[in-house]
Amino acid sequence: MNPTTALSAAFAALDQAEDLGAVVGRDDVGVIEFAATSSGSGDELSDNGVLSGRTVTVKDWIDASGFACEGENPEPSGRRPARDATAVARLRAAGAVVIAKTQPGGDHPIHGRCHHPLDPTRTPGGTSSGEAALIGRGASTLGLGSDSGGSIRLPAAWCGVVGLKPSYGLVPTTGHFPRVGGHEDGRTVIGPMAARVLDVERALGVIAGPDGVDPSCCPVRLGDAGSVQLHGLRIAMMSTDERWAVGSSTADAVDRAMAQLVQLGAVNVGEVDRLDLSESLDISQRYWRRSTLTGAECDQQLRDWDRFSSRLLRASDEFDVVVGPVVADVAPIHRPLVGEDYMFTLPWSLTGWPALSLPFGTDPKTGLPLAVQVAAPRWHDHVVLAVATQLESLTG
């Protein structure tokens, strides 16, 4: 396929989605030149990789050579990284072509406001907001985001796209800007977002594995989602209570997902024991304000974090997968996000477990996307993907 023809269509889709405020960096001429050069012949897009010819968009906290990357800078800095983040380099090596950098937040001091793909009065969430908005509009089909407490999963849920937070340590964070690392931040991961689970699975297979630079990335082989048998798989429900109630349509979506999995042979083992949402919020809030804590308070926060993770790991003897909400309700009218918005995503960030946001119908009152979250113990990303694939096949 001629790169100019293929990429022109992708650029036109970005043009048509300009109203979203989701794209913060483009260099169409440079992208066409890069694609032609990397193909070898100069006439066709590469066909030597699992992502051959796929166009990719990348959150503006992840370095991609040829594009500016402002990160958290409150004012334009002109920073243009010369090297790709490891995940970006691996996507490009697999044949993908990076065509744009995307908005890292619902409201950004440099880039302005990013809008929901279906209703401009509503927020797409944060901070992988541009990715979610573009994919939700159909202007991108595959992208990279990053997730510390829910920054892939929350916007994916509100915008109706698939977003995976991989196991902590599965994908190198080398080239994430701002820099993250195990001793400084034992939660942040880079992960794929897409219109379909299959695309997320393929991208994860490309970007996973140690790079010899990120000391937190472990030599753990990604499992085969195709080998997972749903029959007999133990499915637990994420416990909720009156303090953290979810909307009726969200609750119905979770119930429908559980019922469909049981029909396919999975076993409903009830609610997750020892999962306290209020505790995960408290630990996370203390983490967010750790620069203001005393040494003793920091030590206590870390001890509480370890105990929380240990309890859930012991509880996982009783289940293989957890299904629950991603967010309490559909995307709200534009407003600043608060910790409570991430209530259902925080536990899996604290534990380092893989968790995926899967579109699951629409709210009958607003027509906005609903989603369910599929999580599993650390290193069981393939189980999460297998369950999500089955649910996606049933809902279309």
Question: Tags for this entry?
Answer:
alpha/beta, eleven-stranded mixed β-sheet, 396 residues, Amidase signature (AS) enzymes, two-stranded antiparallel sheet
Describe the structure.
The protein is of the alpha/beta class and 396 residues long. The chain has helices at 3-16, 28-38, 86-93, 129-137, 153-159, 197-207, 248-263, 277-288, 295-315, 346-351, 381-395, and strands at 23-25, 55-59, 97-102, 107-108, 112-113, 142-147, 162-165, 189-194, 234-237, 267-271, 321-324, 355-362, 369-375. It has an eleven-stranded mixed β-sheet, with helices on both faces. Strands 4-5 form a two-stranded antiparallel ribbon. A hairpin with a 6-residue loop joins strand 12 and strand 13. The chain is globular. The model is unreliable at 40-44 (pLDDT under 50).
Please give a quick description of this structure.
By secondary structure, the protein is an alpha/beta fold.
Query: Helix count, per DSSP?
Result: 11
Q: Give the helix proportion (percent range).
A: 25-40%
Shape: globular
Q: Which spans have pLDDT < 50 for at least 5 consecutive residues?
A: 40-44
CATH superfamily of the largest domain: Amidase signature (AS) domain
Please identify the structural class as seen in this structure.
Answer: alpha/beta
Quaternary state, please? single chain
Kindly provide the radius of gyration, computed on alpha-carbon positions and rounded to a whole number of angstroms: 20 Å
Strand order of the largest sheet: 1-3-2-6-8-7-12-13-11-9-10
- Please name the CATH topology of the largest domain: Amidase signature (AS) enzymes
As for the number of domains, it is 2
**In CATH terms, what is the architecture of the largest domain?**
Alpha-Beta Complex
The proportion of residues in beta strands is: 15-25%
Q: How many strand elements?
A: 13
N-to-C order of helices and strands: HEHEHEEEHEHEEHEHEHHEHEEH
Please tell me the overall pLDDT: 94
CATH class group of the largest domain: Alpha Beta
Largest sheet: 11 strands, mixed
How far do the termini sit from each other?
29 Å
